[in-house]
Amino acid sequence: MGNRKQKPPPPKIIDVDQKQFDELLAHAEAGQALSKEECQLLRVAFGSLSYLQNLLSQKSISIARLRKLLFGASTETTKAVLGEEVHGTSPPAGAEAGEEAGRSSDAQEAAPKPPPPGHGRNGADAYWGAERIPVPHESLHPGDDCPECQKGTLYQLPRPATLIRIVGQAPVPAKVYELQRLRCSLCGKVFTAQVPQDVGADKYDITVASMIGLLKYGTGMPFNRLAGLQGSLGIPLPASTQWKLVADAAPGLRAAHEELIRQGAQSDLVYNDDTTNRILDRMGKRLDKAEAKNGSAAQSEKEDNEKDPERRGIFTSGIVCSCAGHLIALFFTGWKHAGENLRDVLVQRASQLGPPIQMCDALSRNLPGELKTILANCLAHARRKFADVVEYFDKEVGYVLKALAVIYKNDADARKQDLSPETRLQWHQAKSAPVMKELHAWLTRQIEDRLVEPNSGLGQAITFMLKHWAELTLFLRQAGAPLDNNICERALKKVILHRKNAMFYLTDNGARVGDMYMSLIYTCQLCGANPFDYLTELQRHAPEVAANPASWMPWNYRETLAVAAVATSPAATGTTSTPWTTVS
Q1: What predicted TM-score, i.e. pTM, was given to this entire model?
Q2: φ, ψ for residue 571, nearest 5 deg
Q3: DSSP 419-481
Q4: Which domain holds residue 296?
Q5: Which positions ≥6 away from 322 have C-beta within 8 Å?
Q6: Where among 414, 443, 476 does a domain terminate?
Q7: pLDDT tens-digit profile of 322-340?
Q8: Which residues make Cβ contacts (< 8 Å) with residue 171, sequence separation at least 6?
Q9: Residue 523 · residue 327 · CB < 8 Å
């Protein structure tokens, strides 16, 4: 049974006010003998505390997780959870809880790790988004005689000296062009200077919508907050204007977004999950008022609410697709769960393709209904159920976490070696399968031999892992199957960041626009593309994007721009520039 604490009996319920506790504390601090009543109060208080701790360990795991976030370890690494270094590459074979589960093999101790690299300043190459300004020498040129020795010839070095200058400015800067005006003193005719040729006719350049979209849906800055910042810097940008700019730019982005969904449907691996969100028009009195006003028309707007017409929960689903070496992030906000949104994506899948691998947690709402997938469940979710009860079952949890640490180390080694999916599968079958087999036997023994209470926190974690064992160990049978759903969890942090700052979407259209921007921006970040530049070029070449969206994906739009620049160059079109001449 290890060192599990026995469940105490429910405490006796008595009525106590704060004054009684203050008097008890004062008597104890003064060293006075406590009365019989005070001793009984102290006994009940400690009993209540013990009972509450046991309930937290077995029932209210989410509260324990919240407590850990507020006061405990900031990570769930094995070292942070167990409070010790994990040596070796495998757990003790056949170890029982309380005996060898907490030990590490001296023969397999890992070599000491080198100290982490220092965090020095970034070099000039790190500032790839900065403007590059060539500065020629003020008096010398390549080919000149050396002014020092008077014998050698100067030549240009391939790498210039660099000076980095960083200046602050408003997120959306502005320029005021003051056009000179002249008036005739006799006829009153006014002559105004011409607007410079490089200045557009519109007040707002298309880059403004790109920057606002990136700030709002990429970094979580609400419209009102940006409006306040811009106003304090003397460049007013009202929240209503910001929304109009991003909404007006959305049609130019839609073709690329739809192509992302189409290509994501062809993926061989998809991750999905969801998180709660808010759309005010679908909540509370707003929805009731709309239904009362429109009757059946309001009901017809619930086209995505197929199973339960009374469903009121609102979610944002995150779907990350691995397609042809590229990662595609898709977000969908509404009444549908992650599985229903995944189904809507996969209906665009080519019929000749087989079912993709789907990685998600074990909730049934993550499944795409009648569409078939090769299901894998998240090993990190199963691991977390053990980590949450480590305070009460430290040695048993230590055994499980150390076993899973071996699996993750093997997977990390496979990534370092850049193994193909098939070779990675063989790698795990050779190195991870024996560990998982031993872990499965240990978990089964805890239940069958009644070594753990099934309704305890540890018992529930073991039961969950055994119930979903086939899906949790798909990486041992299917090439390309991942260990966990962490990549989708990271994608949903974009949604959570927006929800924490902006609080809600106002309308369905606002949610659709937000999902589109968020999908394009995060896909750019996953592919190493510049999201600001990408959004700008999509708007600038909207007709070309609509005609051939596959050539305007985050990973290939720069190549498309380069080809277009060559095709329109003077050499390609056969035109030559004629220098200006002065005619006398």
Answers
A1: 0.78
A2: -65, -35
A3: --HHHHHHHHHHHTHHHHHHHHHHHHHHHHTT-S-TTSHHHHHHHHHHHTHHHHTGGGTSTT-
A4: 285-309
A5: 267, 268, 269, 270, 328
A6: 476
A7: 988 899 999 999 999 999 9
A8: 211, 215, 226, 229, 230
A9: yes
